[in-house]
Amino acid sequence: MSRLWIRDPVAILAEGAQRGIVIEGGRIVELVGAGRTPAGPVDATFDAGRHVVLPGLVNTHHHFFQTLTRAHPAAINKELFAWLEALYPIWSRLTPEAFRLATRLALTELIMSGCTAASDHHYLFPSGLEGAIDIQVEEARSLGIRMTVTRGSMNLSVKDGGLPPDSVVQDEDTILADCERVLSRYHDTSDGSLIRVALAPCAPFTVTRRLMRESLALAERFDCRLHTHLGETRDEDAYCLAHYGCRPVDYLEDLGWLDARVWLAHGIHFTDSEIERLGRHRMGVCHCPTSNMVLASGQCRTKELEAAGVAVGLGVDGSASNDNSNLIEGVRHALMINRLTYGAGAVTHHDVLRWASEGSARCLGRDDIGAIAVGKQADLAFFDLDELRFSGAGDPLAALVLCGAYRADRVMIAGAWKVVDGMPVGVDVARLRREHGEASKRFLEGI
């Protein structure tokens, strides 16, 4: 195994690594401090003199299929429930071919933004798309990105008083059988694994109690994570009170879902006592700042959650409520909305970068990624400061967030380069744009 010295970065998000890091066997094996050289011989050197180096960013909530319906005229300028009602009939036409291109595009966007590990919450299974999770695994492996694929589910449709069309939901037994199949086939809990599986009933208003409880039982059996939307809007609170006679967190507790293996998407409308309970159970919350602002859902109480012991991560959310799959852009949005919430001095660039790396890794139950430290996987994002927006910047790490970094110059996963000179290795971006655009047009026209 060769030893690579990432030498003399402009700045690096790690203590005691002023002169860089040494990588061997896909892992970080040494931090090289100021005035030092590597302790042992190295086989190669990469001059990082143009780069600010971050731990690879970790995206903990997305809906890849939604890249096909960005900025859709029927859905813009609406809040969540009206937005869903406008888009569900369109999404019901999803085909395997369109879904594959949607997944490929979203993963490519993410990796180009400095993301090295992603999670997608896929819950839509119209007839013909039963192999959706297999498609996502294939695309993630092809690109070389780490991924937690979540086998989402919905089994309450319009006929049951829910929001989704009847055609996109499945019955409980079909869902549970496929959950067990994909867990048996793809879930790899080993250190440094590229693919893991989580189970993700969509939301309280789209699944039954039995499905929630059986998903928990499967998660305990296979040692996997659990994920769902919760606390995104006040409409959701009202729905749970009307249908279950309790608030969403109480409903989760009744189902046994207040558990350390659970991370929640959005988590905006929690009371003080609910935040304390989530923290006591060491749960996670994925903060989705861009989506929350687009849909005017509210402001996640990140500081209270983190103070209570909740793991706070970041997610871009679906590309019809964010209209982008850019995680470093999401980091900047997180800084802005949280400063609006808490004050200019209360949330720093270090906070939001931590949420996008260590916090997100905790949400996914991973202790092998999310930081630049000895023993961690060599998942790294390299940003240069060559654009006009960075000219005059005094603090390179702060500049990435405050000046609006948009694309990584290089990305490394498990010690291998996956983005070079801003472009993903092995991906014809122009062709992908053309094929995805054509697929989106056919999809929207119902062809």
Automatic annotation (TrEMBL):
<dbReference type="GO" id="GO:0019239">
    <property type="term" value="F:deaminase activity"/>
</dbReference>
<dbReference type="Pfam" id="PF01979">
    <property type="entry name" value="Amidohydro_1"/>
</dbReference>
<dbReference type="InterPro" id="IPR032466">
    <property type="entry name" value="Metal_Hydrolase"/>
</dbReference>
<keyword id="KW-0378">Hydrolase</keyword>
<feature type="domain" description="Amidohydrolase-related">
    <location>
        <begin position="52"/>
        <end position="415"/>
    </location>
</feature>
<dbReference type="InterPro" id="IPR011059">
    <property type="entry name" value="Metal-dep_hydrolase_composite"/>
</dbReference>
<keyword id="KW-0479">Metal-binding</keyword>
<dbReference type="GO" id="GO:0046872">
    <property type="term" value="F:metal ion binding"/>
</dbReference>
<keyword id="KW-0862">Zinc</keyword>
<dbReference type="InterPro" id="IPR006680">
    <property type="entry name" value="Amidohydro-rel"/>
</dbReference>
<comment type="similarity">
    <text>Belongs to the metallo-dependent hydrolases superfamily. ATZ/TRZ family.</text>
</comment>
<dbReference type="InterPro" id="IPR050287">
    <property type="entry name" value="MTA/SAH_deaminase"/>
</dbReference>
<protein>
    <submittedName>
        <fullName>8-oxoguanine deaminase</fullName>
    </submittedName>
</protein>
<dbReference type="GO" id="GO:0016814">
    <property type="term" value="F:hydrolase activity, acting on carbon-nitrogen (but not peptide) bonds, in cyclic amidines"/>
</dbReference>
